[in-house]
Amino acid sequence: MLEIKNLHVSIEEKKIIKGLNLSINKGEVHALMGPNGSGKSTLSYVLSGKDKYEIDDGTIEYNEKNLLDLDVDERANEGLFLAFQYPMEIPGVQTSFFLKTAINSKRKYLGQSEMDALEFAKLMKLKAEELNINTEMLKRDLNVNYSGGEKKKQEILQMSMLSPKMAILDETDSGLDIDALRIVSEGVNKLRSNENSFLVITHYQRLLNYIKPDFVHIIADGRIVKSGDYSLALELEEKGYEEISKSA
Amino acid sequence: MELTLNFDKIQSDNVSKYVKTILDKKNPYKNFKIENYKYAQLHRDIRSETLLRDIDISELLKISKNISPLSSNPVDLASNLNQWKYKNDDSFFRVSSLLKRDTSSINLDFIDYKNLFLDISQINNNIHFLKSSKNETNLIIMNNKSKDEYPKSIFFDISNNTNLNVIHFNISNYKSFLYFESNLQDNSHLNFVSFQSDNIHTRNEFYASLNLECNFDLFGLNINNYGVNDNYSFIQHLKPSSSSREIFKSIVEKGAITNFQGKIYVDSIAQKTDGYQMSRSLLLDDISKANNKPELEIYADDVKCSHGSTVSKLDEDQIYYFKSRGIDSEMAKKILKKAFIAEIIDSIKDDNLCDYSNKIIESLLT
Predict the structure, then answer these.
(1) C-alpha to C-alpha distance for A169 and A181, rounded to whole angstroms
(2) Nearest CA to B24 among B99, B85, B116?
(3) pLDDT digits over B101-160, tens only?
(4) Counting runs of H as helices and runs of E as strands, what totals does chain B give?
(5) Is B320 helix (H, G, I), strand (E, B) or coil?
(6) pLDDT of B10-55, one tens digit each?
(7) Chain A residues within 8 A (CB-CB) of chain B?
(8) Residue B7: is its pLDDT beyond 70?
(9) Closest partner residue to A76 among B318, B324, B340, by Cβ?
């Protein structure tokens, strides 16, 4: 599904990612954990295709395509989804309109006909209810005056409606209370299947109690320094990043 | 090429010294340093090879009554010209249009339709509208394909306890120079929306005088123009407890210049005035220009007045967010532009007219 080899990334001459390797197969859930400034968010932006990041070396293969050849919207329509740590506020654009435009852009890209209004409304209602989102909220401007938790739920709603093949969750747990964390995690778990893969980026082991990963990787200074199974997250919680990175 | 309109011809011996001074010293066609005409570039003959678009008004005519000036009264030059009631320099547009043209008067109370339509580009006269009944009236003023380089004036006299809604379509004009003057008596309301697009060289002046407990909303939208498009407003609050709300938005591209210059004046006795003025411009390239100049002049001490002005480009991070959800950048930009101007279109309370305006604007939005 996703194969990152020897990735080197810099921004404004500053090297952030320094030889990162990561391979994610269909149906797998990987957790990427690391301290502030280790390159977690940079990796998520590079995967989604945000500009300003310089790829100095390495390759990223996604679904047998060269990911780096694709523009941001093409990557999304090929089934890659990034749930943002800080979702953008878009004044003047209704959330439901945004969702509909996104869904129909993908359908157009895949050569399918547009989803009609009724079908869309049904799908949105169903998915919103699953995430305990009040549909009234979807009439408001996208992310404008949403609380931190509402914004994160909104990202997961978008994800669940677009049903991506490869979803990257960038610190989705930050700013969530326990209830919201559980709801968001359930939303993610509903999407888990043999066909879909996840990369869950987080500081804390807590999220992984709800979304059980198949693999856990620890990133430090732009490289993956240790990989293991779920027990690595528990070990990390106990010992902290510094000790684990040292022992690696 | 320099342009000097020949106003000498229309000067006759019976114009006052006052008028002669304005034509001579305050003439922005000769003197381009006059502050109130600072960015209008009236001394230049601005042209464009661009073929201006036709707009389809058939739908609009279905929901409105096409009116024409009912009576034409030659203006009494001596009395009207010398009567300048605004706390501002006299408008050269007003003076020159009154000298050059006759003025027709239209009493809106005599026409028993809710939506009225008048194409002022088909009429040579200035127009003087009167409204004194409580009937709800939406007046649509069309100005389309005008090549008229002489200023033209539109006056509104709105009586006590009266409402009027005006929608001004200023679309696809080669040259158009309009002066709007709205005099609101106690407790009256005027809602004025001006859509400006596909123009080459235009200037609109909006003068409004507000008495006791009046309310004046002025919304302007300037998109996809060429050349120079200039808006000037002067809103004076003369009596207590009146409010004015002014929002101008422009999207500027293809080397166009869009200007907004506006002043709110609050008289010393006009306590409890609520004035708001906002001008926002979206610059889409680096060859276009937006000049915004907001001004307040306040002599009362118990008022609420605010103004703001922004010039920005489309937000790259917002576009990235759209793209990250599979929406291509062309579509993202279009949606963001529509979001930027939605506030102006939504200010039209009549659903049919709001829908129609939305359609027109969407067809003009690139």
Answers:
(1) 13
(2) B99
(3) 888 989 999 888 999 999 999 999 999 999 999 989 999 999 999 999 899 999 999 999
(4) 7, 18
(5) helix
(6) 555 567 888 888 888 889 988 888 999 989 999 888 888 888 888 8
(7) 48-51, 71-73, 76-77, 81-82, 84, 87-88, 90-93, 98, 101-102, 105-106, 109, 158, 162
(8) no
(9) B324
Token pair for residue B77?
A: 């030059």
Residues of B in contact with A50 (CB under 8 A): 320, 324
SS (H, E, C) chain A: CEEEEEEEEEECCEEEEEEEEEEECCCCEEEEECCCCCCHHHHHHHHHCCCCCEEEEEEEEECCEEHHHCCHHHHHHCCEEEECCCCCCEEEEEHHHHHHHHHHHHHHHCCCCCCCHHHHHHHHHHHHHHCCCCHHHHHCEECCCCCHHHHHHHHHHHHHHHCCCEEEEECCCCCCCHHHHHHHHHHHHHHCCCCCEEEEEECCCHHHHHCCCCEEEEEECCEEEEEECHHHHHHHHHHCHHHHHHHC
Task: Please enumerate in sequence order all residues whose Cβ is within 8 A of that of B357, keeping only pairs 6 or more positions apart, or say none.
Answer: B167, B193, B195, B345, B348
Q: Which of A47, A17, A9 shows the shortest CA–CA distance to A165?
A: A47
Residue position matching structure tokens 């999407």: A191
With a cut of 80, say whether residue B325 has pLDDT above it: yes
Q: Directed axis angle between helix B329-345 and helix A95-109, to 10°? A: 150
> CA B245, CA B215: separation in Å to the nearest integer?
8
Interface A–B counts its CB contacts (< 8 A) at 63
The share of chain A scoring above pLDDT 70, in percent, equals 99
Report chain B residues whose CB lies below 8 A from the CB of A101: 327, 331, 335
Other CB atoms within 10 A of residue B30 CB:
16
- Mark yes or no for CB contact B331/A105 under 8 Å: yes
The set of residues, in sequence order, having a beta carbon less than 8 Å from that of B304 and lying 6+ positions away, is: B273, B274, B275
Closest CA–CA distance from residue B285 to any residue of chain A (Å): 20
CATH number corresponding to A2-247: 3.40.50.300
pTM of the complete model: 0.91
Does the CB of B326 have a partner CB in chain A at under 8 Å? yes
Q: Give the whole-angstrom CA distance, residue B320 versus residue B328.
A: 9
Residue A61 near residue A146, CB atoms below 8 Å: no
